[in-house]
Amino acid sequence: MYKLLIVDDEPLVQVGIKSMLDWSKYNIEICATALNGQAALQIIEEKRPDIVMTDIKMPVMSGLDLIRICRERYGNEKPCFIILTSYEDFHMAKEALTYQVTDYLVKLELTADTLSEAIERVLAAIRRIEERDGAASTAVYPFYDKFFIRLLNNLFESEEQFTLQSRDLNLDFGYGGYVCCYGEMTSPQAEQLPREKQISLFVSSMQMIRELAAKYMPCYALSLDIRHFALIFCYSTISESCRESKDYGREIRGILSGISTTLEKYYNVSFHCGIGSLTDSPQGISDSYQYSRQACLMTDASRPFSFFEDCLKEDSYHSSFNISLFKQELTRAFEEYDPEILQKTIDDICGLFALHPSYYVQALDAACNILYLSISLLQNGESILSEFFKDNPEGYRSIYKQTSVEQVINWLQSFSRQMCQLFEDRRRDYKNHIVANVKKYINEHVKERLSLNEVAAVFGISPNYLSQLFGKYNETGFSEYVNSCKIRESKKLLQEGHLKVYEIAEMLGFESAFYFSKVFKKLEGMSPTEYLNAQYR
Question: What is the pTM of this model?
Answer without folding.
Answer: 0.54
